[in-house]
Design goal:
The complex is a heterodimer. Chain A has helices at 2-28, 35-55, 66-86, 88-91, 94-100, 103-107, 113-119, 127-144, 150-176, 185-198, 208-217, 220-223, 225-232, 237-264. By secondary structure, chain A is mainly alpha-helical.
Chain lengths: 270, 266
């Protein structure tokens, strides 16, 4: 217990230092500060316009009306924004660091390499993206006439947190494969294609083999769908159990692939 | 004689693609994400409706097959990134010293790459038609088919011009990478590759018709699936005008900013 407390205090101090260094770097490259906000903001605005055009011609897509779809887009945008703010820019460099042997530097420091990689490139420029996503969600709730009580509100926040963990796991898992192969470019391409598809298409659209792929093997289809379903009262116990099981399985898998990968790592010759 | 130089550039770039065989195959496979999106989304929509904005389920999927094929062919985005990177690191001189027009070089380069990908993208399109069992709608009128081909070529040429123009803007603005990423996001919407522009309100479509992007992917796709045939000729005329206007803008921009390049990077 005492060790855990010590560890947490140490990690907190490291986190504070990493944030300081990061802010200093960002003030050097000021022009790049809000770039992720504008790029990803435009991406999700395009999604909103697309579904506005679709809903101008139909009343429902599956069981969802316009409001629910807006909440879905906002939720996916929020998951993406949280990742961009906290860990994306750090994790994206993992394959390069493994290939070049730069990972040595992370292994020689008295802090978990993954902890440092996760927090070393936080990007406060993405915070407006978080705010924009929240606005989209609130707009969706109003447009859909969805009443928010403490039960569905808490359920939504709970599933959002759980799916943020899944999002993080997938980011780490795909990049950890670099410990075992020369190039993970194809996996990155696969991740991009899956994200591109699932940010546009809610999980309710998947059936048969597509459901197996996007709810089980590459669970991007679950990420924003479960929080929205919990908010609009479409969540079932079976679905909830499935969601938790998937997150636990992928957490375990990520942990395993990462720790085994670190053991396999042979500096620049990896 | 002049043309031979550009044909050589196209040939070299055509051959260079053989070095990236895996990329070609994977690019081909990943076109499925666009078709899958369309298939799953419109399957849900059409489960409660027969016709949406004049499209049946199969004509909608035919539209996505054609527009996805055309958007895969359009690979000019690399030109602006290439110019941007080279101006930033001071190696843009490579293009300034070659004995061909720089813009002509990029057009020939794009032609070589497009010709290489043409067959693969066609195979991918046929494969998705077969796998998703689409009753493919295709135009039978030869005149419309030729008009569509003409528009496709003009559209590809316009996109090369646009990418070249955005690339040389680096001479003035230095950092255009964020703008290029935003442009790519918007381009998917305004060229109609995410959803057909026919789904947008009439007033929006009217504005789109005045812009060149309507004629790059959307109109050729619609013509090839046998719709909007009355717009074919007007489309060609508008597209030619846009190409001419952009050519003038490129000349003026290059004349104004080319002297800012000092070959040492930014």
């Amino acid at each position: 217990m005492n060790d855990l407390g010590k560890n947490l205090r140490k990690n907190y101090r490291v986190l504070k230092e990493l944030m300081k260094i990061r802010f200093h770097n960002l003030t050097v490259f000021r022009l790049d500060f809000f770039a992720p906000f504008f790029v990803d903001g435009s991406l999700f605005l395009v999604q909103l316009l697309v579904f506005r055009a679709v809903y101008a011609n139909v009343d429902t897509v599956g069981s969802w009306k316009g409001g629910e779809m807006i909440i879905y887009i906002g939720t996916f945008s929020l998951l993406n924004a949280v990742s961009m703010t906290i860990c994306f820019f750090g994790l994206i460099g993992i394959p390069g660091k493994i290939l070049s042997g730069e990972m040595d530097l992370y292994l020689s420091k008295p802090v978990s390499p993954l902890f440092r990689l996760t927090f070393e490139k936080m990007n406060p420029g993405s915070v407006p993206l978080v705010l924009m996503s929240l606005c989209i969600i609130v707009y969706g709730i109003k447009a859909g006439g969805i009443s928010i009580g403490w039960q569905n509100g808490c359920a939504y926040i709970f599933w959002l947190a759980v799916m943020a963990i899944l999002y993080y796991n997938m980011e780490v898992l795909i990049r950890s494969v670099s410990f075992y192969v020369l190039s993970n470019a194809r996996l990155a391409q696969l991740e991009e294609a899956c994200l591109d598809l699932c940010m546009k298409l809610p999980g309710i659209a998947f059936y048969g083999i597509f459901k197996v792929i996007f709810y089980c093997l590459l669970p991007y289809g679950l990420m924003a769908t479960l929080p929205v379903q919990s908010l609009i009262g479409e969540m079932t116990w079976k679905l909830a159990a499935w969601g938790i099981a998937v997150v636990l399985t992928f957490s375990l898998l990520t942990c395993l692939v990462w720790t085994r990968g670190l053991k396999r790592y042979n500096s620049a010759s990896s | 004689m002049k043309m031979r130089k550009y044909i050589e550039v196209a040939k070299v770039n055509f051959k260079a693609q053989f070095a990236w065989r895996a990329d070609v195959i994977f690019n081909m496979i990943f076109t499925v994400s666009k078709i899958l999106f369309a298939y799953l989304l419109w399957r849900m929509v059409f489960s409660g409706k027969e016709v949406v904005s004049g499209f049946t389920f199969h004509s909608m999927l035919s539209y996505y097959i054609v527009s996805s094929f055309l958007s895969q062919l359009e690979m000019s985005a690399g030109i602006s990134s290439e110019i941007f990177q080279r101006i930033r690191n001071g190696t843009f001189s490579k293009y300034m010293i070659i004995p061909v027009s720089m813009e002509g070089y990029f057009v020939a380069m794009e032609a070589g790459i497009v010709l290489f990908y043409l067959a693969f993208d066609l195979i991918a399109a046929l494969l998705w038609v077969f796998i998703f069992q689409i009753e493919f709608a295709f135009v039978t009128d030869v005149f419309i088919l030729l008009s569509a081909l003409c528009l496709i070529l003009l559209g590809l040429f316009f996109m090369v011009q646009l990418s070249y123009y955005l690339g040389i803007l680096t001479l003035k603005y230095q950092g255009i990478d964020t703008f290029l990423m935003i442009k790519n996001n918007l381009m998917a919407l305004i060229t109609g590759t995410i959803v057909p522009l026919a789904l947008f309100p009439e007033s929006v479509v009217r504005i789109m018709k005045a812009l060149p992007f309507y004629y790059v992917t959307y109109l050729p796709s619609m013509l090839l699936i046998g719709r909007c045939q009355e717009e074919a000729l007007a489309g060609i005329v508008i597209m030619v005008c846009w190409c001419l206007v952009l050519q003038v803008v490129i000349r003026l921009t290059w004349a104004k900013y080319s002297r800012k390049y000092d070959g040492v990077g930014i």
